[in-house]
Design a protein that fits this description.
The complex is a heterodimer.
Chain A: H1 7-26, H2 34-38, H3 44-73, H4 85-99, H5 105-126, H6 130-134, H7 141-162, H8 165-175, H9 187-200, H10 203-211, H11 214-219, H12 224-246, H13 252-264, H14 268-293, H15 301-327
Chain B: H1 2-20, H2 28-37, H3 40-71, H4 83-97, H5 101-119, H6 125-148, H7 152-162, H8 174-190, H9 202-207, H10 212-234, H11 240-252, H12 259-279, H13 288-306
Helix pairs in contact in B: 1-3, 1-11, 1-12, 3-8, 3-10, 3-11, 3-12, 4-5, 4-6, 4-10, 5-10, 8-10, 11-12, 12-13
């Protein structure tokens, strides 16, 4: 199980992340010479730095959440966006913001966590419960159930937003998934993600043992139910915090874990480490592309991800379906 | 036949409500007077909305039932497979390029069918549906990007259209819509012998003397044309083509493929969704497409929870 530690690869990916951060600081909607950018007064650099930090942490959080969901369900298509969990979290946040206009970030976070859990429970029921989770390979019902949950939650959230003009100004773009340009109390979810991601690595060996089967997990003294509960709670917190920052993003948690698992050669702990820089760089680049392709307008990161994510989803599906035939 | 009668009666009822309903409800006599006098609210606002909703709903319901029958899978409908979204993308690209909108829509829908057929060679239907979901996501996102690059005046109108709103309904798109619908019904009438066999399987159909290759091409062309004409009129409306046929069967007990019941059900559903959107307008301005998504997504949740066994 334990392969050689991919230190060179990890170094390479962190270099990629560094390049993403620099590009995100340098380029934006407004073209600007380097001199003007570096003069401290205009505040553009600070704004871009905040935006880059949000994209990096939310991207890493969604990628790790996807990796864990995929390990748990043994379904390579289980992405927090595709499964409708992010949409549920968004509906939770919108519900809280609508009922309590003065609500602070703690209440919003509680809303996203409640919404994400509710979507998860519904997904578990519609996806066929334990039955379809136990088999290897692709359970096709999972993305279908996610489509239904996602469409329902997002349309309800839009309806609530449309009821109130202040909500429209604040949340209409957020709902299609966008990295924030101005600060509105994002420090708390950002800190929450950082706090979960550090000890999160320790969850991977437990999950890997669970992957061998419930019996072997129990015989090693690790309660399968406890592993599942821990994983689902961590996924809920990560998705809830990420959605509170960027809105419901899809496809990032599909593509990044897929690449990380291929690059790591199957070791979940190594895949976890690769997910962090790759996910962070992925969302930074998606946000950057959105700022550049429609100048002077901005394309939200959620749209860019969906644009690239559809073909990626199809590619992952084809590669996964082909894989068993190659091995035999 | 019974199914068609039940649904036609329901449709007439909804049509009456859609024309008479508003801040003050009109009685039958007052409505007749308003229709013949050329009352602006009834003739200029409510009637175009109703006609477009009915026509587009019928077209999408029919297209959905045809594709479900052709693939023998209830989930294979133009909206879930991304054909509606690709037609919408074609519309926006044509708008940006100054080309004919209907041609753009048809090109988009045709391209979607081609891509799906190419990707899905030899794949199971369940996998093909997932390919469609991916296509739908990309097409909607690409549509938004094109929208951002349009000039402001065109963008505002296109945004309203994209959200599936009938608030500015104009009858200019009704002509291609009803012409396509009539043409489709005429062509389907010539295939009346083969169509009831759709769900029975290729062997049965071939055994009974159906030219399968030809039938497939005809039906695919009709699906593309119907989807394009409906999307041109009301925007890319989701979950309507998917919901219409199964709901028509559940309510009337009509046997598959239930083409006419699905068509009427589609018209009734969209007219009802539009009526609901109008009635709610005092509280919240919801586009008709959003109301339809709420109805249709709830139906898909119910469908999946009732059929927890397989993937179909």
């Amino acid at each position: 199980m334990s392969r050689a530690f991919p230190s060179r690869l990890l170094l390479l990916l962190f270099a990629l992340l560094g390049a993403a951060v620099l590009a995100s600081l340098r380029f934006g909607t407004a073209p600007m010479p380097l001199q003007a950018l570096l003069s401290a007064e205009n505040g553009i650099l600070a704004g871009r730095a905040f935006r880059t930090l949000c994209a990096a942490l939310a991207g890493a959080a969604l990628s790790v959440a996807g990796l864990w969901l995929q390990a748990l369900t043994r379904n390579p298509l289980a992405d927090p966006g595709i499964t409708g969990i992010n949409a549920g979290a968004a509906l939770g946040a919108i519900g809280v913001a609508f009922l309590m206009p003065q609500a602070g970030m703690i209440a919003i976070l509680a809303g996203t966590a409640a919404g994400a859990s509710a979507a998860g429970v519904l997904l578990w029921r519609l996806g066929g419960g334990i039955d379809s989770m136990g088999h290897d390979g692709i359970a096709l019902r999972l993305p279908l159930a996610g489509l239904a949950i996602g469409a329902l939650a997002l349309s309800l959230a839009s309806a609530v937003i449309l009821m109130d003009s202040e909500m429209q100004a604040r949340y209409l773009r957020w709902l299609s998934g966008s990295v924030p340009a101005v600060q509105r109390g994002e420090a708390l979810p950002l800190a929450l993600i950082a706090v979960v991601l550090v000890p999160g690595w320790a969850l991977c060996p437990r999950l890997e043992i669970l992957g061998l089967g419930s019996e072997s997990s129990a015989s090693l003294g690790l309660s399968p139910a406890r592993t599942i509960l821990l994983t689902l709670s961590a996924v809920t917190v990560l998705c809830g915090a990420a959605v509170a920052i960027t809105g419901p993003l899809a496809f990032l948690g599909l593509v990044v874990p897929f690449l990380a698992r291929r690059l790591s050669g199957g070791d979940l702990g190594h895949a976890y480490l690769l997910c962090l820089p790759l996910g962070a760089a992925g969302l930074i680049f998606a946000d950057l592309i959105g700022r550049l392709i429609a100048r002077p307008a901005e394309v939200d990161a959620g749209i860019v991800l969906a644009l690239l994510g559809g073909p990626a989803f199809i590619a992952v599906l084809r590669l996964t379906l082909r894989a068993p035939q190659e091995q035999s | 036949m019974r199914a068609v009668l039940i649904l036609a009666a329901a449709l007439a009822l909804i049509a009456y409500a859609a024309l008479a309903g508003g801040r003050e409800w009109l009685g039958p006599q007052a409505l007749f007077a308003a229709l013949t006098d050329g009352d602006f609210v009834v003739q200029g606002l409510r009637l175009p909305r109703l006609l477009l909703a009915l026509g587009a709903g019928c077209a999408l319901g029919l297209a959905g039932a045809l594709l479900q029958g052709l693939t023998r899978n209830i989930l294979a409908t133009p909206d879930i497979l991304g054909i509606v979204q690709m037609a919408g993308l074609g519309h926006l690209i044509a708008l940006a390029a100054g080309a004919s909108l209907l041609a753009g829509e048809i090109a988009g829908a045709g391209l979607a069918l081609g891509v799906l057929a190419w990707l899905g060679r030899g794949a199971e239907t369940g996998t093909q549906i997932l390919y469609g979901i991916g296509l739908a996501a990309t097409a909607s996102a690409a549509g938004t990007v094109v929208l951002l690059r349009l000039p402001d005046a065109a963008a505002a109108q296109a945004m309203l259209w994209l959200s599936g709103s009938l608030a500015r309904a104009e009858l200019t798109t009704a002509l291609p819509l009803f012409a396509t619908l009539g043409l489709a019904l005429g062509i389907l009438a010539t295939q009346a012998r083969a169509l009831p066999l759709l769900w029975l399987g290729d062997e049965v159909m071939a055994g009974l003397g159906t030219d399968l290759r030809r039938l497939r091409w005809v039906l695919l062309a009709l699906i593309a044309a119907l989807t394009a004409a409906a999307t041109l009129a009301v925007g890319p409306i989701g979950f309507l083509a998917f919901t219409a046929a199964p709901l028509a069967q559940a309510i009337t007990g009509a046997p598959r493929p239930a083409l006419l019941p699905a068509m009427l059900m589609g018209g009734a559903l969209l007219a009802l969704a539009d009526l609901a959107a109008r009635m709610l307008a005092g509280v919240v301005n919801l586009p008709t497409g959003l109301v339809m998504t709420m109805i249709g997504a709830s139906y898909l949740v119910g469908h999946l929870s009732l059929r927890r066994g397989g993937t179909r």
